Amino acid sequence: MLAMTEESPALYVVPTPLGNLGDMSPRAIDVLRQVAWVAAEDTRHTAPLLKHFGINTRMLAAHEHNEEAVAQQIVARLGEGKSVALVSDAGTPGISDPGARIVARVRAAGYRVVPLPGPCAAVTALSASGLVDSHFLFYGFLPAKARQREEALRPLAALPYALVFYEAPHRILETVATLSSVLGADRTLVLARELTKLFETIHACPLGEALAWLQADANRQRGEFVLLVSGAPPAADDGEGERVLRLLLDDGLPVRLAARLAHEITGAGKNRLYDLALGWKKADSSE
Length: 287
Ligand code: SAM
Hints:
The protein has 287 residues and is α/β, with parallel strands linked by helices. It has helices at 26-34, 43-52, 67-79, 100-108, 121-129, 146-153, 172-183, 207-215, 240-250, 255-266, 270-286, and strands at 10-13, 37-40, 58-61, 84-87, 112-115, 136-141, 162-167, 188-193, 201-206, 225-229. The structure holds S-adenosylmethionine. Residues 18-19, 88, 90-92, 95-97, 120-122, 166-168, 192-197, 224-226 line the site of S-adenosylmethionine.
């Protein structure tokens, strides 16, 4: 089976293992063998991977500081009819890694971009998280400075989606503390550490207990982390919707209209308000 089925040159976006070389797909190996060049975030990092799989393809460096320049080189090579593969140090290029600008340039120049499915720490962690939120928001790395980190988190606090963050070991304690204080100590944290590696750990606990769990054993603070936080619980009903509904009904508005207006004014659930209004009407008429 050929990995590269088309004749025209393309940029192949190739995910690489997060730690376990067994996660390198046969198609990824074929593509890296068949292209003319491998554009790598760090050629020293990728060289042993290529060697391990017996791949002799030439490399060019494509890191965040030269992305624009290397994008032009890649477009020029595609123009000569040569295909190029893009890899990062681990996981999927362009996901909290360089690559997006190269992809944009190649697409703008009218060449094909062929993505291969493969390792990504966020998706791998999500699949084992057991978080039942049907939606998630991938955030990646939070800012390093405490104040910016809090400011970045605040707009996310009320979202009813699981939140997915990346974090490095030297900031894990402070980031977990900030997640707890800004998002709320009761929300569930799933901490996925060293995925696919020897010391892989997936631990779930309330955010408010996570700091103590990490501090109980220094080994738990080592390695690479994905932090997943359950979505915000539905907002507690503060009674405002009911109060406005009562006023509108008392003013003689029909049930359906009163429920709709109370919903629009307060944001309380429309169906719940409608059911409530019907119940009140029934009770009033039976008095
Ligand atoms: N492009 C990569 C991907 O697709 O997941 C992410 C690259 S980003 C520079 C590196 C971060 O990804 C780490 O700091 C960590 O948050 C996460 N990560 C990478 N490998 C991991 C692993 N084996 N276990 C847990 N998290 C990992």
